[in-house]
Amino acid sequence: MTRTPKSMREKTGVPLLRGAATGLFAAAFCTGVSTMPALGQESDLRGGVLEETVNRSLLSSGGIRPGEEVSADNEAAPRGYVPVSEGALPDEAEDGADPAGRERSIFADSDDDDPFADAPRPARRPSMARQNRRQTESEIAAERQQSRTPGTTDEDEEAGEEVVETTASVRAPTLDSLDEEANSSAEVLNGRVEAIENRDLDAEEAPYAPLGLRLGTFDVTATLDQGVRWTSNVDSSPSGEQGWLSETQLRLNAVSDWSRHAARASLYGTFLKSVSGADYSQAQGGLDTALDLDLGGGYAASAGFAYTLRPETASSPVVIVGTASQPLQHGLTGTLGLRKDVGKLRLSATGLVDREFYSDAELSSGGTLSQEERNATLASVALRIGYEVAPALVPFVETEIGRRFYDLEIDSSGFARSADRLAVRGGATFDFGEKLSGEVSAGWLRETFDDTRLAPVSGPTVDARLAWSPVRRTTVTLTGSTTVEGTTSAGESGSILYSGGLALSREARANLLLEASIGADWRDYIGTRDSELGLRAEAGATWWFNRYAGINGRLRHETFRSTLPNRDWQASSVYLGLRLQR
Fold first, then answer.
1. Residue (of 230, 316, 227) closest to 557 by Cα position
2. InterPro entries given for it (predicted)?
3. Within a 13 Å sphere around the CA of 484, how many CA atoms are in the beta-carbon half?
4. Residue 102's domain spans which residues?
5. Domain presence at residue 85
6. HEC sequence for 416-435
7. pTM: predicted TM-score of the whole model, two decimal places
């Protein structure tokens, strides 16, 4: 082996020890011998290698410096040694390096000395580390391409930031980590499918209310009660007897379905017939209608008509001696009103015509007795002024002027009973929706007869129509009225009847209705100290089988007390029947 000249070692400034060079060559030679011939060919180990050639190859500047990437063209050639310190090696021109800048292998000679130069060299297979590095680099390039902003090129990214490459091995992701479908939760394939015929499960507000019939623009409902009643006093008289009565009651209600105006009508009738005990029969009924018109411009009109038919009760102030049955009492009532709103003022005028007449009474001895002298007509006009202190509260004052006309100017006793009427009232109307609605008033009433021998009928008046709902499905109703009653008794002016009632209705369940009521009637005879008091109480319930049929029952007790002789009576009754509605 040729020694390296001392001048060369001094020129490069790199002291090389002979022992070190000899050891390096020996290690390389042993490795080449122990390797398979194919690998030896891939490493270019041919012929003898001089120490000068080794040193020149190690000190050459044509090798790849640390940090540079190995290209695909020079992957087959091994890297040359490149020291870190600059200036450690001479320039390639001074060392006789290849002017073309080609790398030289530390084990390669010139092509002139290679006997196999003309033969083609077999291609080297890349090592496993290089394959992994290639795969990692391609994956990084693909991720960079996906995260690149649209419109950005490789040159823009290289100009905008410094790319630091590393030769360290990067852990390859698992195969299923990039599969989003495999990592997502499985969808439910057997989910519940809703029924084709979907039923509305919302609770109905009134599931047992009547459906009604559509007649033109009116909704008509019909109710029929048929049952049996036992009573301890069939005719509510001082000498009444007990008995079983068949009771039939029919009621028809019609309500308009108009957008601007409103109309309603009610027709009812009751028929009683004894089936056991005392012989008794009775029929009563009535009709009540109302019409509300919106005339625009703050004007509104109202009209009403009512008719009642009922037998005169034993508690009537007029006592007819020797009659087989009480005469029938007819009542006709018509109203017409006009309202005007001026700011918060509520102005109204209401006209009233009330006609009351009686059929002839049948005498027990045979024949009839005329009741013509009791027939009378009341005509009046009420003027009202109200002020709206709140949308739901309107206090008012009212004045009523009218006259009562008797069909006979002079009755059988020689008295002229026609009279002038004057009344003053004060009250308020309420409209809190379903919570509270109605009207209540109080005042003073006076009727002065044409015959000065008769004392005027004068006294306080109380009237009320209130509906209050303290809780849902519960309604409390308060009613009150003041009525002037005439008489045919000689020298007597008549009486004032005050009636009041309180009723409670509660829907305990959708198909169970509970009802209870109490009432009182007090009659004051004008010009005397006589008076009469009637009390009543009732409790009942209705249980619906379905929307069309139900069973109902009630208990009732009445008591009548009078300062006049032979007028007291009381009655208790129990009713059970079937109610049908449509």
1. 230
2. BBP2_2
3. 28
4. 6-136
5. yes
6. CCCEEEEEEEEEEEEECCCC
7. 0.66
